[in-house]
Amino acid sequence: MARLVTRLQLVTRVRQRADVEGDPHVTDTEIQDLINEAIPRVWDILVAAAPPDYYSTEVTVTCVAGQVTYALATVAADFYKVRRLWQDYGSGKRRQLELVVDGDRERYEGPSGGELVVFRYIPVAPKLANDAATFDGVNGWEELIVLEAALDVLTKQERSTSDLRAKRDREEKRIESMAYRDAGAPQTIRRTRGGDRWLQWAQQLVGYNVVGSNLELYRPVTGWPWP
């Protein structure tokens, strides 16, 4: 189950950790900004430590005939990291696409058109825009955000940070000790000898790549002499 905390709850906890409850010299607005600055620093750790795909989301891309490149700003404006891609055949049937490396691109061309691709990815770190906005700490991992922001408060006040930093380091180690190691997609297309398989896939997508700010989708070049 998700463990959701609001921005208001995070602000309260930051004040408690930094011992500035009721201190008018540290405003809620300032703490809110520190929380949103801390979230991206912690996001990578949380993404690695959560169950595989816990923080992922999916979009569906409709392929255009002959078009290899699809702008991420249009497909997934909040894109951060690839998880997996599948060609979707409907009725719950999917086939996973695999990463195409630069040296193999000459073997592939754009989609035939109309294919549906499910694009699963990790979004960028969220920004909490109001007091009711929530963050999912999974298993209390939001405490690392609280400690990061509280450390920033102490640093600004030129107070000792040693005790709080020790707590922050212990919390990070706790999270990292639970990290999953999921390599995701392989680094190249797994080719199988024999032309029949590639002939069967000639009108199907088999690969993808992310190049700069674009997603690229491929199918085998028609007539390529596959061994």
Keywords:
five-stranded mixed beta sheet, 227 residues, 24% strand, four-stranded antiparallel beta sheet
Characterise the protein shown here.
- The protein folds into two domains: 4-51 and 125-177; 58-124 and 184-220, no CATH class.
- β4 (79-90) and β5 form a beta hairpin.
- α1 (7-18) packs across α2 and α4 runs antiparallel to α5.
- The termini are far apart.
- The protein is 33% helix and 24% strand.
- It is elongated.
- The model is unreliable at 182-202 (pLDDT under 50).
- The strands form three sheets. Strands 3, 6, 7, 10 and 11 form a five-stranded mixed beta sheet that branches. Strands 2-8-4-5 form a four-stranded antiparallel beta sheet.
- It is of the alpha+beta class.
- It has six helices and eleven strands.
Number of domains: 2
Q: Pick out the low-confidence regions.
A: 182-202
Order of helices and strands: EHHEEHEEEEEEHHHEE
Q: What is the helix tally?
A: 6
Instruction: Tell me the Rg in angstroms.
Output: 23 Å
Q: Which term fits the overall shape?
A: elongated
Instruction: Tell me the structural class.
Output: alpha+beta
End-to-end Cα distance: 49 Å
- The tally of beta strands, per DSSP, is 11
